[in-house]
Amino acid sequence: MIDPQRARDELGPLVAGVLSDDDVVERYARVVWNTLTEPGDGAAGILTAAQGPVEALARVRRGELSDSVLERGEARLALERWEPRMRPGAVSAVLRTARAARLHLVTPADEAWPDAADDLGPHAPLVLWVRGDPRALEAARSGVAIVGARAATAYGEHVAGEFAAELAASGVCVVSGAAFGIDAAAHRASLAGGGCTVALMAGGLERAYPQAHTELVERIAATGAVVSEVAPGSAPTKWRFLQRNRLIAALSAATVVVEAGWRSGSLNTAHHASALGRPLGAVPGPVTSAASAGCHRLLRELEATCVTTAAEVRELIGWGELTGRGGGESAPRTTDATRVRDALSRRVARSAQEVARRSGLGVADVQSHLGLLHLDGLVTAESEGWRLT
User: Fold this and answer.
1) For the chain, is the Cβ count within 10 Å smaller at the N or the C terminus?
2) Confidence (pLDDT) at 167
3) φ, ψ for residue 69, nearest 5 deg
């Protein structure tokens, strides 16, 4: 059992608002899960969704997963993964590090939780750690991820900077991974343009990675947010970088790959965006440049949209029609049906009244759009409300 008072004391300033004992215990249980699992652990996602993080944790501690929603073999393998991390004091150490780094803990029960993360289903993060303003997560939902090669060329960094600066000036949040090359160029240009930018990290947020970007990460946190799903104190590993990429794709409205080699890690982000149904753009480069081979591959194999200007990037997310360099009148940013879909979740069913509150539309309009979306097979009606298919 988790002691509510001890949980409250250890969470301290990491959580926002006045919370009941049950709310505090649930958040603490999620931190325990965060220390037991690696990012994207589907078994943990299924268990916590079906039984709640507190009850699921109690069963794991007792080793009683035989009657759970997991198949027997899957349950056995999951316990074998988690058991070595069940160390006394591990959670307390994580929370001490988080408090010292002045982080925020954001869970699905918090208002700042990005519903877009729920599109990852059982592989969605159990918690998010935020350095900076958690409200920036909402801005990221309508923003653009700009990613690309670490060993970027001058051409790639120039294009990334131009895109990010213009997007920031028009109010579009820029999301990236704070790495060398394209990521850094996008973040710096967004900051220079006075816009919001969000960095997704593969390790604990108590220190920057790469270390050379310590000042850049501090600047991002000062005006936007630096985010990670791994517990403070965790080292960035290859697996965590690959899993981090799915979050970059999920938390953004669209992903644009500026420069990428044939086997670039940015292609991993692009594939996640495609699998999630997010718009995907790629910047063409010289056919003789190995640094653009991955972008050309995306254009050919994933049918990514060719983008050459910030206006074309904005068109990916519905911010005005495609006008090219000559300019022209802008179209509406989104339709009302898009606003209704954005207000829904794949994980949590919501009433028409709740969808109306989140979308800013009237209940009657929401019900009309829900009916049409239901006919198109895009939403399902349940006893608790409406959910994205």
Assistant:
1) N
2) 95
3) -75, -5
Measured CA to CA, the distance from residue 244 to residue 39 in angstroms comes to: 8
Cα 242 to chain centroid, rounded: 13
Identify whether the C-beta of residue 320 lies closer than 8 Å to the C-beta of residue 314: yes
Fold match between domain 130-326 and domain 336-388: no
Q: In the chain, where are the structural domains located?
A: 4-94, 130-326, 336-388
164 vs 191: CA distance, rounded Å? 9
Q: In the numeric block, which tokens belong to residue 298?
A: 């995306």
158: left (phi over 0), alpha (psi -120 to 50) or beta: alpha
Residue 84's closest CA among 37, 14, 137, 147?
Answer: 37
Q: Which stretches of the chain are assigned E, i.e. beta strand?
A: 104-106, 128-132, 144-147, 174-176, 197-200, 225-228, 254-257, 280-282, 305-306, 379-382, 385-388
Tell me the per-residue pLDDT of 303-314, one tens digit each, with 9 for 90 and over. Answer: 999 999 999 999
For the domain made up of 130-326, give the CATH fold.
Rossmann fold (3.40.50)
**DSSP calls for 73-127:** HHHHHHHHHHGGG--TTHHHHHHHHHHHTT-EEE-TTSTT--GGGGGGGGGS-S-
Strand pairing partners for 176? 199
Q: Is the dihedral of CA 53, 55, 59, 64 positive or negative?
A: negative
CATH, domain range 336-388: 1.10.10.10
Q: What is the rounded CA–CA span in Å between residue 382 and residue 389?
A: 11
Nearest CA-CA partner of 388 in 334, 339, 350 = 350
* Residue of 119, 121, 133 lying closest to 199 (CA atoms): 133
Of 94-108, 176-190, 207-221, 370-384, least confident by mean pLDDT is: 370-384
Backbone angles phi, psi at 252, to 5 degrees: -110, 155
Q: pLDDT, tens digit, for every residue of 135-163?
A: 999 999 999 999 999 999 999 999 999 99
Pairwise CA distance, residues 105 & 13, whole Å: 9
Whole-prediction pTM: 0.81
DSSP 3-state helix, strand, coil percentages of the chain (rounded to 5)? 50, 10, 40
Rounded-to-integer distance, Cα 196 and Cα 108, Å: 23
Amino acid letter at 361?
L
